[in-house]
Design goal:
290 residues; alpha+beta; 434 Repressor (Amino-terminal Domain); 10 strands; elongated
Length: 290
C-alpha cells in the first residue's frame, strides 16, 4: 500500500502535542498495535482497507488534524473490483426449517390439551356424576335427642307458686351488641351487658383503633374498632384497657365521659375502677397492629 509519510506525519504531530500512544489508544479505542502500525506506515498489518481508513481518520481527528488530506493518500475501496466469496457447496441434505419446530411443538401442546380435556369429560360422566348422586341420596344422620325419655310428673296449677328466677353470678365479662356489625377480624360479644355490676365502661371509636380489654383479669375483647364502633364492658372490680391509638378512643366510666387518654398514635394503658381511672406510664407513638 503506497501511502508513505502518513504515519510519520501523525507521529510528529503527536510528539509535538506531548501525547503518548497509550493516551491516543484510550481516547480513540484503537489498539496500541494498530497505532504503532500506522506510525510505521505498515498498513498491511491492519485488518483491511476499510479499517485502515477509519483508524487514520480517528487518529487525525484526535490530534485536531484535517483527515481528508491524509485519506486522499490512501487507496479507496473499490467494491466492484472486490472478489466475491465462493458460494457454499450444496449438499444432498435438505436444511431443517426452524419454523417447523415451532409448528410441531404447538401441535403437540394441542394434542396434549385435547387428551386432558377428553379424560376429564370421560371421568366426570362415568365416575363423578354417580359419586355426586350417591352422596346426594345418602340419608342425613338423625340428631341425638338430649331430652330424657322420662316424663315429668304432673303438677296441678294450685300447687305452683311463682318465684323469681335465681340470680346466677357472672364469672366472665359481658359485652353488648356491636354497632355496626363486626368485621372479619373482630370477635363478636357472647353475652348481654350486665347493668348490675359496679364498673360500667363504654368504648366508642372516633378513628381506627386497636384495643385489648380485660374485666376482672379475664380478656373481654381484642381487636380493631372502626369509627363509630362501640363496646360495653362490665366488671366487679376493674376494667383494664390497652390501646394503640389513644387519641382515637372515647371512654365512659359509669356514665361519665373521661378525658382523652392521649394524642393519636400513642399507646396507653388505663385501669378503670368504681373510684375512677388509673393511668399507666405513657409510651411513645407506635404503629398499632392494623
Amino acid at each position: 500500500m503506497a501511502a508513505k509519510g502518513i504515519g510519520d506525519e501523525l507521529r510528529r504531530e503527536r510528539l509535538r502535542q506531548g501525547l503518548t500512544l497509550d493516551a491516543i489508544s484510550g481516547r480513540t479505542k484503537i489498539s496500541l498495535r494498530s497505532l504503532e502500525a500506522i506510525e510505521a506506515d505498515a498498513f498491511d498489518r491492519l485488518p483491511g482497507l476499510v479499517f485502515t481508513r477509519n483508524f487514520v481518520r480517528l487518529y487525525a481527528l484526535d490530534l485536531k488534524m484535517e483527515p481528508d488530506g491524509l485519506l486522499d493518500r490512501l487507496p479507496r475501496f473499490n467494491i466492484e473490483a472486490a472478489p466475491l466469496p465462493d458460494p457454499p457447496a450444496r449438499t444432498g441434505r435438505t436444511q431443517w426449517d426452524p419454523r417447523l419446530t415451532a409448528a410441531l411443538v404447538s401441535a403437540l401442546w394441542l394434542v396434549t390439551a385435547g387428551a386432558a380435556g377428553s379424560g376429564a369429560w370421560y371421568y366426570y360422566n362415568h365416575y363423578g356424576r354417580h359419586l355426586l348422586t350417591a352422596v346426594a341420596a345418602a340419608p342425613a344422620p338423625k340428631p341425638a335427642n338430649p331430652v330424657s325419655s322420662v316424663k315429668p310428673a304432673a303438677v296441678t296449677p294450685a300447687a305452683v307458686t311463682p318465684a323469681e328466677p335465681p340470680q346466677v353470678p357472672s364469672t366472665s365479662p359481658a359485652t353488648d351488641k356491636i354497632t355496626p356489625a363486626p368485621r372479619s377480624n373482630e370477635a363478636p360479644p357472647t353475652q348481654a351487658f350486665d347493668n348490675s355490676r359496679p364498673v360500667q365502661v363504654i368504648l366508642t371509636a372516633r378513628d381506627v383503633v386497636w384495643v385489648q380489654v380485660s374485666a376482672d383479669g379475664k380478656t373481654a375483647f381484642v381487636g380493631t374498632l372502626h369509627p363509630n364502633d362501640t363496646r360495653s364492658v362490665a366488671a366487679d372490680a376493674q376494667v383494664k384497657i390497652l390501646t394503640g391509638n389513644a387519641g382515637g378512643l372515647d371512654i365512659s366510666l359509669n356514665g361519665r365521659p373521661l378525658d382523652p387518654l392521649g394524642p393519636k398514635g400513642q399507646t396507653r394503658t388505663v385501669r378503670l375502677t368504681a373510684a375512677g381511672p388509673q393511668f399507666g406510664p405513657q409510651n411513645p407513638p407506635v404503629s398499632s397492629p392494623l
